[in-house]
Amino acid sequence: MNDMKNLRYLMLSMAVFLLLPSCADEISDLKQEGEPVLQIEEQFIDVHFGDQITFTATVSDHISLSTLTAILYFGNEEVERTTIRTKDNGTYKGTISVPFLKDIPDGTATLEFVLLNTTLKRAVKSFDVPITRASYPYLILVTKDAAYPMLPTGQPDEYAATEPFSSTDLPAYIKTPVVDDKGREITFGWETGTVTQDVTDPIPFVSPTGGIFSVTFNTKTYEASPFFEILLNGEKMTMIDKENYQIDADLTQGEELAIEGLDEIGNWWIDPDYFTETEPGKYLFVPITGKYRVTANLAHTYFRVEVLEGNTPAMLKADGSGAVWIIGDQVGKPSYKTLHVGWEPSRALCMAPIGNKSYQVTLVGGETINVDEINFKFFHQKNWGGEFSSATLTTPSDLIFIGNGANGRDNGNLGIIAGKKLETGATYQFILDLSAGINQGVLRVAKK
Asked: 358 and 266, same structural domain?
């Protein structure tokens, strides 16, 4: 009986196998038929970056048509495409956008049209389209309360508004006029720390002097001024917003760092975990050699430092190297009252790596840490995820304890031992030692 079933199975399989080539033959035998005809009214003159190009196409075939696609190339790179349905013979209109991008020189683009019928037979036409950056008669600087004309300065693509502005702090965006029926209004605003087209978030212009000053902008390079300028060892820090300037740099333990551009730097709070001040504006770098992100925060007048891995905040590695982060309550630099970390990962404090897989944070009672209570913990990353617990962290401290979920703190959270408190004005050094492994961490707390 089983032999009969097997024989039927074998015969069925052979029949299916014999049918497969004929199916493949049918697919390969699908032939492109018809004779699609494509005519384009060539009217691609005086085209500028940012324009909307209108095209008119007359199409026909003796079998059904499918689509007409317009593709714009800068060199060999496709930068824009649009497709319209062309079911019937006739005349169709469409538009395709010309991108407005930074640093693209004037030149000749290629505009290609591809007409397909339902058998995928095609007709193709291509046109050379000279594209230039428009010479605007003016731009418009838009603030919260007013708008100001920006006139050509005589330098290529540069415009300026020179006015008795009411404040040296001048958040504003810039927009272009519409120069012809192909053009559109293009805006320039602030996004991810740089001037970007087609956004209107205000650019944080700041003038070093009051009264009459100029705001300038270049529509090709996107160079703009004035901005506050801060230098670290001669390298310009990037303006993230009007309160924060940032630079990623390879720093060497013990090297001297010079910070320029801050007139009142002598009044800034200096983080002892990262800097030893030799004089205002000059510092010795404290942690181990590596790549760091330094952020100058003008609102709180301090430098925030974070360990990097590549271009992103570092994580703690399995061998104990990398970075450790503090998230939680009653702690913050330069003041736990004015810049509280809380349970917000974006505000996490990066402990300074001091060598031998140890990490340090120095805190002052009543200033950067609450003297009466604390409730923070150590994390493997600047976010939720890996974290230290009572199973992976111990302490010999007679002042600080590690929570286990049943002793008044969640597992891994730090607290002050009952009946004790920190001393106001006293400096405490928290050192996390991972030399025995990341699952055998030891926290030592010393009053300096």
From this structure: yes
